[in-house]
Amino acid sequence: MASIPAPAQALLGTDAVAHVWTCNEDGSPQVSVVWVIVSGDEILFGTEASSRKAYNLARNPRVILSVEDDERNERGFQRHLVIHGSAVIEPGPDPELMDRLARKYVGLGRHPLALRDAPTAVVVRVGIDRISGVGPWVASERAPRQPVTAAS
Fold this sequence. Notes:
alpha+beta, seven-stranded antiparallel β-sheet, 40% strand
């Protein structure tokens, strides 16, 4: 499992939502928007156990999360973080996690949805296999650029 570089942790600490991609049984993509939080080297979100994403992840734990930054890099490209990983579904609600997400995203002390205490709610833990995208979380963007010279 890969660790989360500090610049990626900073973006994940903002109120930018994540787009989570899972794979339907027929191979087609399923995409949802989720609120996420970093816990150690994992990314967590909550969902209903009966949701399509939970069903897909129970069958195939491969997942991709995409988070768009509000900044552009020095070349003018929109920065975005792409996380490739594997998900583990933990049964049962986690009211503390749901309340942390509500504070982060909407400034409420208590999550407004029944998902907070629903016995059918689950927590999804995403372990990171690889990070890509455009931004300082990608090694090629952290390294100093070398000038391009014409071959003689």
